[in-house]
Design brief:
By secondary structure, the protein is α+β, with helices and mostly antiparallel strands. It folds into 2 domains: 75 residues, Phosphorylase Kinase, domain 1; 136 residues, 2-Layer Sandwich (D-amino Acid Aminotransferase, Chain A, domain 1), CATH 3.30.470. The chain has 6 helices and 13 strands. The strands form 3 sheets. Strands 8, 9, 10, 11, 12 and 13 form a 6-stranded antiparallel sheet that branches. A 5-stranded antiparallel sheet has the order 1-2-3-7-6. Helix 1 packs parallel to helix 6. The chain is globular, with a radius of gyration of 17 Å. The termini are far apart. The chain binds cytidine-5'-diphosphate (CDP). It catalyses: 5-amino-1-(5-phospho-D-ribosyl)imidazole-4-carboxylate + L-aspartate + ATP = (2S)-2-[5-amino-1-(5-phospho-beta-D-ribosyl)imidazole-4-carboxamido]succinate + ADP + phosphate + 2 H(+). It comes from Calidithermus roseus. GO terms for molecular function: ATP binding; phosphoribosylaminoimidazolesuccinocarboxamide synthase activity.
């Protein structure tokens, strides 16, 4: 089947029905704008299953998404959208790039949840972008920007509660949004340990891609453990 697009972690194919795509999740892992490359065995299965579960949960909590259904262990069916070229990052505690940029230690709680935007452009290293610049460049409308911010904060509230019930704290995450043909904004891309930071409550253990980025070991085990908790329910 002809590929429509191949990214770092996923491949997009035409879907079986008009207006759909089939998304295949790979084991390939990259970090630091693809300067570090590797594979995480079983990651594609884990990320497909976690993303599917979280999309279903978010739909039930008032967040429209591109997700339609799981097709196989590594594949999901999604609605075709036009991706808004912004990475929408939500933060609850300082970590990663944010901690470095402002010279603060990792793990400091933020006084309020923060929504940040980066331009989706690998060649430029996904630079941080102001709301005003995104609007001036015509990347989206003011109404879309307000809707994306509202949905990002709703996702944060829903996922924080979801993970806390499973002994994990949601530190930060990245979302992407898309437009349906009628202009409706929906959550797209994936939500997985590749795109979130999750710290185990009590121990502070990192249960996400930072284990790969920082060579902490136990990468596969952490991904499997997150999957176990996500599908296993609260408790
Ligand atoms: O991950 P890094 O320190 O480079 O950047 P960050 O801005 O601190 O990342 C915030 C959150 O967004 C983390 O959970 C990252 O995993 C996620 N992220 C992502 O999934 N894709 C990107 N291109 C950038 C960040």
């Amino acid at each position: 089947m002809e590929k429509l697009y191949e990214g770092k972690a996923k491949i997009v194919y035409p879907g079986p029905e008009a207006g759909t795509y089939r998304v295949y999740y790979k084991d390939d892992a990259t970090a630091f704008n693809a300067q570090k490359r590797g594979t995480i065995a079983g990651k594609g299965v884990v990320n497909n299953r976690i993303s599917a579960q979280l999309f279903r949960y978010l739909e039930a909590h008032g967040v429209p998404t591109h997700f339609l259904r799981e097709l196989s262990e590594r594949e999901m069916l999604v609605r075709q959208v036009e991706i808004v070229p912004l990475e929408v990052i939500v933060r609850n505690r300082t970590a990663g790039t944010f901690a470095k940029r402002y010279g603060v230690e990792e793990g400091r709680p933020l006084a309020r949840a923060l929504v940040e935007f980066s331009l989706k452009n690998d060649a430029l290293g996904d630079p941080l972008i102001y709301d005003e610049a995104a609007l001036a460049l015509g990347l989206l409308s003011e109404g879309e920007l307000a809707r994306i911010r509202e949905l990002a904060l709703r996702v944060n509230e829903a996922l924080k509660a979801f993970f806390l019930e499973r002994g994990l704290e949601l530190i930060d995450f990245k979302l992407e949004f898309g437009r349906l043909p009628d202009g409706t904004i929906v959550l797209a891309d994936e939500i997985s340990p590749d795109t979130m930071r999750l710290w185990e409550v009590g121990t502070g253990e990192k249960m996400d891609k930072d284990r790969f980025r920082r060579d902490l070991g136990g990468v596969e085990e952490a991904y499997q453990e997150v999957l176990r908790r996500v599908v296993g329910g609260a408790g």
